[in-house]
Design goal:
globular, 1 helix, seven-stranded mixed beta sheet, mainly beta, about 50% strand
Length: about 120
């Protein structure tokens, strides 16, 4: 599976961005999908994950209530809708795929990583 994230950019605090991750291959629905981010000088951190069917989502406490993950298995895409953005959300965002499903993504048991997309939130 090859993953390509897009949709990053510069936004003011309080604004919104929508990130998309397009996956190649025919087994997309076999993977739990997730998003991570990495700010300069910091470790990569979990943002959220979604189950293979899309019926279950989980989020980091820092983004809960502001970010929403969804997926379209017919289009091989997963989306991260980010609202009420804060300067501390500034980071490179990565999408990830895990055959073990959404429950293992939080433990970084990821099979495939996409190239990141930069999100910058100005104050």
């Amino acid at each position: 599976v090859q993953l390509q994230a897009s949709g990053g950019g510069l936004v003011q605090a309080g604004g919104s961005l929508r990130l998309s991750c397009a996956a190649s291959g025919r087994a997309f629905s076999s993977y739990g999908m997730g998003w991570f981010r990495q700010a300069p000088g910091k470790e990569r951190e979990f943002v959220g994950a979604i189950s293979r069917s899309g019926s279950i989502t989980t989020y980091a406490d820092s983004v809960k209530g502001r970010f929403t993950i969804s997926r379209d298995n017919a289009k091989n895409t997963v989306t991260l809708q980010m609202n009420s953005l804060k300067p501390e959300d500034t980071a490179i965002y990565y999408c990830a795929a895990a055959l073990g499903g959404w429950t293992v993504i939080k433990r970084l048991a990821v099979d495939y990583w996409g190239r990141g997309t930069q999100v910058t939130v100005s104050s």
